[in-house]
Structures
1.
Amino acid sequence: MTTTTRFAPSPTGLLHIGGVRTALFSWLYARRHGGKFILRIEDTDLERSTPEAVRVILEGMEWLGLAHDEGPHYQTQRFGRYKEVLAQMLAAGTVYHCYCSKDELDAMRGAQQAQKLKPRYDGRCRHGRGPGAESGRAPVVRFKNPEEGATVVRDVVHGDVVFQNSELDDLIIARSDGTPTYNFCVVVDDADMGVTHVIRGDDHLNNTPRQLNMLLALGHEPPVYAHVPMILGPDGAKLSKRHGAVSVLQYQEEGYLPDALLNYLVRLGWSHGDQEIFSRDEMVKLFDIKDVNKAASAFNPDKLLWLNQQHMMRAEPVTIVPHLRWQLVHLGIEAADDGVLEAIIIAQRERAKTLKEMAENSRFFFGEGVTLDDKAAQKHLTAESRQALQQLASRLRMLPEWTAASIHELVQAVAAELTLSLGKLAQPLRVAVTGGTVSPPIDQTLAILGRERTMNRLLAVLG
RNA sequence: GCUCCCUUCGUCUAGAGGCCUAGGACAUAGCCCUCUCAAGGCUGUAACACGGGUUCGAAUCCCGUAGGGAGCGCCA
């Protein structure tokens, strides 16, 4: 049987990094074992599912490069299949109709809670003590959970987890309007789709014994379960909109590389010795769901930032070009040639943590003129430094070859001739051509800028 | 309330009874390098939740306690 995993988000909220990490684990596991990765949209909650959320899932997965081999399946398109299985179970007697009204159920729960008991359905319709068909109500369908014994979930990350069946009640698998519910759809889908490994958040661990019992009732072999810990916000509290629980696409906007985000996420709950930086291939080769930790982990934006820069510095510059262009376009800078972009990436990658920052720091490479920062100009463009710049400008004009190496040599030579420290010459030059005090090394900066633009900007300052 | 899960530096983690004077990384502090900003290098601060066992020996095994989380829906 080919290893088959699935990612089954529900489009009731925007896909965030918590979901992305379970998707990543599932994807990695399938890839590592040469298996199949399925994407399934669990949209049976007609009330709360939104097309926008579906779009974010699809676009987010695409941006991250977590390609699925099958799907996306939509549960709303499988209602026919659920009905079929339901009929089968009704015939087999493993499920039953329940005519209890919501009010009755509420009252039951209220009474149980008053007695400090766990609220659960008492099975009155199962044992003929309920209202029955004569109530005229449309019934729900409940699953006959075993009333005795225990159900053991064999979980690769948690080990065996034992649940007493007496703790489990008869859950509703079809609403009174006939639509199936989550726990039932999951069971049918996972079985139909041949899912061999169910990797999901550990908030589902408590649902698992019920699903397991249904699976058994349907005569299926249970899959391997792996309940992975949750991701918490930086403050250790549940992930919220304030930090982390934003659409995954926001990370694209903020200038993160997909591989960096994935690398960050894979290290939450998983490690390989002391290694911090992993390429996509390394993740596929080294990741194993068995090595995932049990404890939840807090999201640390600083480390993500650091990793993003590490990935920018290590990646082949050409591969970054489209990402940087994307950011520049957002800043309204369109005219950028691939070669120039590549040079900018090489010059800027160790001074920017994100692509967005890189783009913002690189504005001065584009356009003709530049606006001088007042404070910088006042400090560095003094009468004395203008003199030096004047000298330098005429020498730059004559420089036979416009390369970083030759510019470097010339700037140094001029500084020596004028008995100025390099800083006394380079910094005014920097202010003149970039408008500010921060840029890549001045030789590289001029090389990228080109002779014409450099001379124009110098002239504008020296006037 | 009941059931289930979890617990090593601020954070992510290494650690499967002696290799632990608890290692690495982010963050943080100092120093070095230096044309700015960075990147990089070096050094420092900083953790086994608590209490009992088991054992010659426990961060590692067992039992409690405390704290945190999840589930208990005609939500997924």
2.
Amino acid sequence: MSAKPARVRVAPSPTGDPHVGTAYMALFNKALADTTGGQFILRIEDTDRTRYVADSEAQIFEALAWLALTPHEGPHKGGPCAPYRQSERLPMYKEAADTLLRHGKAYKCYCTSERLETLRKIQQAEKAKLLGYDGLCRSLSEAEIAANDAAGKPCVVRLKMPREGDIEVHDFFRGVLKFIAAEQQDAVLLKSDGFPTYHLANIVDDHAMGITHVIRAEEWIPSTPLHFELYRAFGWDAPVFAHMPLLRNKDKSKISKRKNPTSLLWYRDAGFLPEALRNFLGLMGFSLPNDQEIFTYDEFLRHFDLAKVNIGGPIFDLQKLHWLNGEYIRKLPHAELEKRLVEQAKLLMHREREFADLPEDQLPQETFLRDFETKRRQRSRVLGALAPELMTSYEVNPQLLAPIIPLIQERMHTLVEAADYLPMFFTREFAYTPEDFIQKKHTLDDAKKALAAAREMLAGSDLEHPDWLTRMDEQSRAKAEQLGMKIGPYLGPVRMAITGSRVSPPLMESIRVLGKEEALRRIDAAINALAQG
RNA sequence: GGCCCCUUCAUCUAAUGGUUAGGAUACUGCCCUUUCAAGGCAGCGAUACGGGUUCGAAUCCCGUAGGGGUCACCA
């Protein structure tokens, strides 16, 4: 493919749940590394101590591993540029800041956050065109600086941005972007707590780690002139910057928790397959030849070309992901789906509280998502509760679960949807009422007749016979006709008796899984219930 | 508001100066069908607007409109 091996990175900050945008950037970065024989690096940008969340880093790594977007280098596995956690690289930033100070490219600023706050308020009140730091400390004399330091005044280090002319930055997709130097402000590089800001740390590390391409979100464009100036101040060559489009909510705003699930953990809990989500992310801003929409990572790589990325911001359409996930589920070998279902149930076990129904006012506004989320919670509870039985069945009695898989596979779009079909195979009692047996345009009496007829038919049949399904089909039709019913209404009450629901996997196949004895018992239970009701 | 970015069906996108503007999701209808799915077929549906350039513009240029991002000692 491309010429030189690219060294790329994804640089999330551990401030909360692993974000779908991180996975999106990881995918495109990794793709560039893999198509050029380069390396994909995970760097943890933990320079904000106030927002730091302890679990977050582990979750980020776990989520990337789940998606098979594992980095070649990172805090978990080390590498030639270790450490990969910025909090462990503090001396480098300090030294870099000192260098800039020494060369007069940066200056110490003693302004308090109170002054900055009032400054901002005044600027807003005046509707000033330029908001931001006024550069007061830029002109401090050496004596003043010494006096401030002697007095132990806290300070930050700011970059001296040029005050005249244009700053030209280059973006891989957009070409040259021009910014007016005078409109840029002197950004903070080192905070008063001694930690670097993102701006400093990211440049120092990208340079130290030999990063060749910075593929990051479009929201970084406004600070790119600052980053170019930093490279210039250090005398380093800047990498290629490629600003990817932002993933969007339905209303086109930047994807956000309130309007769209953003946590990768949510997608895993909801039963999306990692390969489906990764495929879907690959569809955001990119397409394969011949309208191919379903592809493996290898196929993606075969066609990947950074230059072909579409930079219009794509809306993250959960409904399409839902469809795609169903496609992936249907493609899974039975044994694999079985394994994943058990794993999913295990994942959801003992978490009922998390999946409690959401109060009306906390439900998402958008209709598809609202409905999805409501059902997802219900199903998660059901599947989690079923976990012990599924695990036992999988490990101790595999011949029980295995035949169920083909019956439910083509009905599912997410793994948790199995909760709609699985319980009937593990429950012996159903909470139905006589009304549940009444079919459209039919009476309770019809239902009773259908149950009796079906019982007789089933009792006299041999479930082991290879033609059993065909025979049941033929006999059902004949019996239905004899009773003056269509096959649907005829089997409806039987379905309710056997599965406890009007909706179920194919009836006869389900009966075969349950076995004759259990099936007859269920029909008898229903007959009894109707007789008493 | 200043600066910057973006703009093909509702949504994801294809078409890199010549196509009846293609595919997919969603939606609708029909078929299949033992419920629900899945599947098959069909329908609906877009080049934001206005100027240029050109024999010819979704495609190149300018303007307008709309949308988005960003303006922290957060990333």
